[in-house]
Design the sequence.
């Protein structure tokens, strides 16, 4: 199972944020976040990641 791929796809769909798969770097089940944007855009992306993570946590807890 590619957990990092599933999570990366989820972030792309739910938060419009792209990350690098940890498995591509030899670290399974992790993602890497690289950024080269102005701070306001970075803050916005972090908020979207936080919101997506909270929604995912709530969905898992409901199961």
Sequence:
């Amino acid at each position: 199972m590619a957990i990092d791929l599933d999570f990366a796809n989820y972030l792309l769909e739910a938060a419009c944020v792209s990350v690098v798969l940890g498995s591509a770097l030899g670290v399974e089940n992790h993602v890497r976040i690289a950024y080269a944007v102005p701070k306001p855009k970075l803050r916005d992306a972090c908020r979207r990641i936080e919101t997506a993570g909270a929604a995912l946590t709530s969905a898992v807890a409901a199961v």
Q: What stands out?
A: The mean pLDDT is 94. Residues 3-61 form one domain. The CA atoms of residues 25 and 32 lie 9 Å apart. The longest helix spans residues 39-61.
